[in-house]
Design brief:
It is a single chain. The chain has 2 helices and 4 strands. Strands 1-2-3-4 form a 4-stranded antiparallel β-sheet, with no helix packed on it.
Length: about 120
């Protein structure tokens, strides 16, 4: 009799473990689908074009120098871990505004051969 109760208890424990694993995998799938939907929905991105980051350069870990376009004005500021410090307003004539370069679809072999040629 004791062996029979022990067997049912083990079977129940295995069933609970499988059920919890399925529930965990279900939650992971739901979180994945929700984050994909949220990213595509546009709620995460601004819907206006009044503010845009033109360029960013890391000065040190946690310190970035940024140029942003706010309306029709260009401003520069330093972005720190805890706050941001305004530096100055810039004129459009002072900036070299080049469009971002299109990334080339190079294979790893081509990139590796370029790196090898630079080394020699």
């Amino acid at each position: 009799m004791l062996l029979y109760v022990y067997g049912i208890s083990t079977l129940a424990s295995v069933f609970k473990l499988i059920l919890l694993l399925l529930l965990f995998i279900g939650l992971l799938v739901a979180a994945h689908l929700f984050t994909k939907w949220y990213a595509k929905s546009g709620y995460a991105n601004a819907k206006t074009t009044n503010i845009s980051i033109i360029e960013s350069q890391q000065l040190a870990p946690g310190k970035n120098l940024m140029i942003a376009k706010v309306g029709k004005k260009y401003v520069s500021f330093i972005l720190l871990k805890d706050n941001a410090e305004f530096l100055t307003e810039l004129e459009e004539e002072d900036l070299v505004l080049t469009p971002p370069q299109q990334s080339q679809n190079l294979s790893f072999k081509e990139i590796f051969s370029k790196m090898k040629n630079k080394e020699e």
